[in-house]
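stuck on this fold:
=====
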Amino acid sequence: MKSNVKTILTKLTINPQYQLAGNELTLKVRKSPLFIRSVTFLFAFLFFISPIVAILGVEKLHIFYFIVTFLFALMGFYLLRIALWNTYGKEIITFNNDIIDYIADYGWFKDSKKQIAVKERLDYGIMPIGYEEDHEGTLIIGLEEPSLVCVTKMPKFDLEMLISKLYDFSASHHENQ
């Protein structure tokens, strides 16, 4: 019994991963451990640098070197994206009158810009992620197509509180119109 209470208490976050200010919702990614982020940044850097160093050390250039450089650059960019997301990542969702804007912010650049047309009433839900005993999930905005499935993993308790605030926001927003 004590371990269940302790588990539930450790899942309650004092500093939630979300911020609802005005018509903008920001979901922040929990940072991965420093060691993991450091290794990911290191490998991203090495994937960019090693083919360039190899080309500089060769007298004759072949098309093979350019192909390998391109492939290594792609892998380096992918690893850089992962490292940035795990360090600075956040999702910015802006609720306008009839459109929801979504942006994935990696800190150094923004990606995955989406716009979704809003119908009369927005519904919100939770998509479970990971193991059931972890009690974590992601936010779903709009349960019918088109919907927006966020990628930021959060405790279900925080998601339930956020959904409650979003319903309150939607109700007050429709009253003002």
